[in-house]
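Researcher: Next sequence.
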Amino acid sequence: MTWNWKKYRKQKHQFKPKDYCVNCQQKKSCGRLNEEKKYCCACYQEILADLERDELLIDSTQIVLNDYRQGVVKCQCLGAEKPRANYISSDGSGWSSCEGEKCEKIIDSAGHHRVVKNRNDPKFWGLSIKEKVLCLNCLQKFQEKMPISKRYMLNKYLKRGY
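Model: Next structure:
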C-alpha cells in the first residue's frame, strides 16, 4: 500500500477563512456588534441601520447601535493589509477582475488565502487611488504618479510579460 502524498497535502492545506466579514471580506470581525463574528462592525452597522429604518430593531440592539455611533463601544475590527480576490475556485485559490476602465482581464491571487499579488496592488506602487486591483497595463496609465524606483520596477515587469 502506497501513501498518497497529493491527497494528504490537499487536506492539510485547504483554504479556511478565519473571521473575515461575509459582506466585504476585507476585515476580521472583532465581535463587538456581531457576536457571531460573521460581519465586521461597519457592515453590521449598515444592516442595523436598514432594520432601524424599517423599525424592526429590538430595544437592546437599538441601545448597542446608539452606543457604537456615539463611540461608547469601540470597534477593533482588523482591516486586511492587502485586498483579497473576489472569487474562489474549488482548490481554494482565488481570482479577481481588473478594476481599470474598459479592462476585463482576470488576475490570479497569490495563494490559498486569496491575497492579491503585490504587482496588482496599487498601494504597492505608491498610488492612492480608489481601485484595489489593477493589471499592469492599467497601472501603466498611472506611471507618472509613481516614484522613480517603482516606475523602473514596473517597466521590468512589463518586459517580462506579467
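Model: The longest strand covers residues 94-97. Residues 10-16 have pLDDT under 50 and may be disordered.
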